[in-house]
User: What shape does this take?
Amino acid sequence: MIHEPLWQAHAMPPIPAAAPPDHVDVAIIGAGITGLTAAALLKLSGKRVAVFEKDTVGSGETGHTSAHLTYVTDTRLGTLIKRFDEDTARLAWEAGAVAINLIEGIVTEHRIDCDFHRVPGFVCNPVMEEEEEGSTALAAEAALARSLGFTAAFHALGPIRGRPAVSYADQAIIHPRKYLAGLARLVHGDGSCVCEHAEVTEISDEPLTLTVGGTSVQCDYLVIATHVPLAGVAGTVRATLFQTKLFPHSTYVLGARLPSGLVAPGLYNDTSDPYYYLRVHEDATGAYAIFGGEDHKTGKVENTEACYDRLQATLTTILPEAQVDRRWSGQVIESNDGLPYIGETAARQFVGTGFAGNGLTFGTVSGMMAHDAALNLANPWKKIFNPSRQDVAGVVSSVREGIDYPLHYIADRLRTDRKTLPESIEPGQGKVIVVEGRRVACSRTDNGELIVLEAECTHMGCVVRWNVGEQTWDCPCHGSRFAPDGAVIGGPAETPLQRVEYLVPDAT
Ligand SMILES: Cc1cc2nc3c(=O)[nH]c(=O)nc-3n(C[C@H](O)[C@H](O)[C@H](O)COP(=O)(O)OP(=O)(O)OC[C@H]3O[C@@H](n4cnc5c(N)ncnc54)[C@H](O)[C@@H]3O)c2cc1C
Ligand code: FES
Assistant: This one.
């Protein structure tokens, strides 16, 4: 079993090293689909851009995706209409359709070899429930989509386990890292650059300036494309309030070989909560399935191995022929109301986040909108994705999920394990324990190294938890994730967990 995304098997072409420039028109933080789309579009419009990436191109969630390109949002069309109105729902779906067209256009025009293919998408009744109730709801959803101008059809006997399904024409699949490599190639050079291993550690105002590895870079406009936004210059209080409207969820994926022709290439989701998603493509080596689900709020589940076990059991039920050879997980960021937050959060500072499971399309939409905002152009989606929009009536998720912070902040401090000693932690294990009155997060690598860290999340102080499946420290409050050595994997935390000196007592 390989424990990394299918896309990592593609070696990224090296990007020639570039020193950070003193000044650029637009600085972009993050080299995922959001940042690189913005950078490519702005460069094509004549701007000098610099993309700063703390790791390497495609190392973030774009490299962990299941790579469905679809305008069908995680939040059902009927729900969007109820929460907002018909125009908003139609515009949100149109944004996704335009994003797929834009990707296709860039791929064709700039000859990016990234396995882009148009395929149909299906949404079916829950695959693990025997009840066939709900087909009326799916038929209504198809009719609604057609009434708003989308090509949708209801099938009483759908392609997965015969579950009733709605099909949507003209969705697509792509190899995300090959696509990002093509975008990076477009951006780098002629006064613009993509700088890898270039973490932005500070953003200050007047003039707008980034600190990148000890160097200052001034810019006229800033795009924060870090999936979960950095605090930026919006001010800590405002940024923190914004971050509490975002809900990171962990999601799990299996990769499996399939007999050729068993399932037609395409995108398949069901309507379980959380839902299962399946993507099938064929290449020279045969058919391959990517199957995902078992989502939960990040940091909430300690035995994450059980998520993979349940996922495998479900896949075996729906496709007994599947030969699983890979697994991986990642984070999706849910918003408060089912639509992403895309736009300016402070003057000349642009953010795109809250994409849920539609981050390839909404990330592309963010790139288009960042381009328009930096050039002061009108944009049709500015109002509906405005990050400062009011909470819509009847949405309780922020209240329900928001109680996690006070709950964990207090309750996790009351748990004190004073009996376990750091030296008793086994390889691959992690535990929060109290040593000499101090709460520490201890883990041991497979090589036997004991690592002891501060256990309090550097975002707002909740106590982190060990994720045994991914070998990470996850925060149950707002979903920050840390590597065993304390480095930030995903925000909102921006500062690593500090090492704590611990001397293993001499046994003699
Ligand atoms: C398992 C899984 C399945 C998914 N399936 C789908 C799907 O089928 N379809 C779909 O549309 N979406 C899907 N998504 C969601 C989608 O992949 C993401 O929403 C999208 O890739 C986010 O892109 P991004 O560019 O905004 O962020 P990322 O790709 O995460 O890029 C952000 C980058 O910012 C960098 N960064 C962070 N902080 C700093 C800093 N201080 N300085 C410099 N760089 C920094 C990070 O290293 C990272 O590379 C899925 C996600 C997961 C995890
Ligand atoms: S992510 Fe907010 S306290 Fe940890």
Remarks:
- The mean pLDDT is 90.
